[in-house]
Amino acid sequence: MTPVMLAIFTALSAVLTIALPSFAFVFKPLTTLLVIAYAWPRGADEPPVRKWVRIGLVLSLAGDVALLWPVQGFLPGLVAFLLAHLAYIVAFTRDTRFAARPLAFVAYAAIAGAILAVLWPGVPQPLRVPVVAYVLCLASMAAQSLVRWLAHRDRADAPRLRIGAIGGALFMTSDALLATDRFHGGLALASLLVLSTYWLAQWCIASSLSPMRTRATA
After folding, report:
1. pLDDT of 64
2. Long-range pairs for 121-128 at CB < 8 Å and ≥24 separation?
3. How far apart are alpha carbons 150 and 102 in whole angstroms?
4. Measured between alpha carbons, how far is 9 from 11 in angstroms, rounded to an integer?
5. 101, 150 in Cβ contact below 8 A?
6. Which of 160, 154, 176 is nearest to 108 (CA)?
7. Were both Cys, which of 75, 89, 94, 191 would link to 48 (CB 3.0–4.6 Å)?
């Protein structure tokens, strides 16, 4: 299946997930599986990055499945996505020193702090430590994706790295929206906003891997 076809099917599955909540048990995992299918043949010339992006996507799939049960699955889902962000951090440090551009981390730390300050009163006491750990990993992942682009803006693959940085920012946006809906009162159009930014984030992270080489370009 070509990348264009995968993009179409991924978008269709995402729309069905949002429009038909009763079928989320089918279409939500399917959408992430389609993102994994898109990512899988990419990154052949950067095996360490590819390996850890794949791990991050598979852990995200586990988190998606856990969160199909919003109450019982919240903590397992949180842990799965925390591990996914750690995997992405490892991926984004295979060719770029961690925090090589400190201002990126300062910026994301300020954003994360502001989000936590707003949501903190609504976070249940037993979840506060896991939530803080998660936000730290999420912000670090997003910051490192930005660092990777900033550190290599003169490389030929800089446009792909910029897309990865956009993916990190979208992931932060998606989880901020999710947390707002859960801990700060209901959010209008929560499912649409959270899931659309989430799958766009994953697609962008997958797109930061080098394209599959065809016989013509090999």
Report:
1. 97
2. 122/182, 122/183, 122/184, 122/185, 123/183, 127/74, 127/75
3. 11
4. 5
5. yes
6. 176
7. 94
Closest CA to 147 of 106, 197, 86: 106
Banded model confidence at residue 187, pLDDT cuts 50, 70, 90: confident
By CB neighbour count within 10 A (0-12 exposed, 13-18 middle, 19+ buried), where does 43 fall? buried
Sign of CA dihedral 48, 10, 196, 79: negative
pTM assigned to the model? 0.94
The first and second tokens of residue 31, run together, are 């959408």
Cβ neighbours of 214 (radius 10 Å): 7
Rounded to an integer, what distance in angstroms lies between the CA atom of residue 120 and that of residue 123?
5
DSSP string, 118-156: HHGGGS-GGGHHHHHHHHHHHHHHHHHHHHHHHHTTTST
b/e 178-209 (16+ beta carbons within 10 angstroms → b)? bbbbbbeeebeeeeebbbbbbbbbbbbbbbbb
Residue 164 DSSP SS3: helix
Percent of the chain with pLDDT over 90: 93
DSSP string over 35-102: HHHHHTT--TT-HHHHHHHHHHHHHHHHHHHHTTSTTTTHHHHHHHHHHHHHHHHHHHTSSS-TTSSH
Asked whether 46 and 94 are in contact (CB, 8 A), the reply is yes
CB atoms within 10 A of CB 39: 22
Six-digit token string for 72: 């019982």
The tokens describing 78, both together, are: 């949180």
